[in-house]
Amino acid sequence: MHKRLLLLERRQHAALFAARDAPSKRDALQEQLANLDLMFDRVGKRVSKIVQNCVVEAEVRPQILVKSLQIIERQELTDAKVRDAMQAKPKKNAAQSAPNGGAPQVDLSSARLRCWYAMVIRERVLFYWYSIQ
């Protein structure tokens, strides 16, 4: 499911970038894809709960725990790509595609860093902190 969400998100960014000069079309696209962030949040919360219960999950359903960790890793790789693109700061007058037939630019105004790894670590530390007090 996470792979499909990432694919849909990439398509959303590409469509929003293509519609950057047509505000009405861009607004319609944003409205149609408004639930995408909610879906990511739901998946993130579920993955976080699985990792919080890692001791139980490792004994009962180790494959689910491994899959959840793979999802976190995949999301972190995606976040790293977005961070790199944000740090590159393309010039306003740059061509729409990279030289030598590279990938087209992506609209970063709708990009969102999800930082699931940090979320899971933070929640795990808080869980541990409250359990020892």
Structure description:
The chain has 133 residues and is an all-alpha fold. The chain has one domain (2-87, 110-132). It has 6 helices and no strands. It has helices at residues 2-18, 23-32, 36-52, 54-60, 62-88, 116-132. Helix 1 (2-18) runs antiparallel to helix 3 (36-52), helix 3 (36-52) packs across helix 5 and helix 3 (36-52) crosses helix 6. The longest helix is centred in the middle third of the chain and has 27 residues, at 62-88. Residues 93-101 have low confidence and may be disordered.
Characterize this entry briefly:
71% of the residues lie in helices and 0% in strands. It is mainly alpha-helical and 133 residues long.
Main features:
133 residues, mainly alpha, 6 helices, 0% strand
Strand content: under 5%
Radius of gyration, in angstroms, nearest whole number: 18 Å
Largest sheet, described in full? none
Q: Number of helical runs?
A: 6
Whole-Å distance between the termini?
A: 38 Å
Average predicted local confidence, pLDDT: 76
Domain module tally: 1
What percent of the residues sit in helical stretches (DSSP H or I)?
over 70%
Q: Unreliable runs, pLDDT <50, ≥5 residues?
A: 93-101
Please report the total strand number as a whole number.
0
What class would the helix/strand composition place it in?
mainly alpha
Order of helices and strands: HHHHHH
Shape: elongated
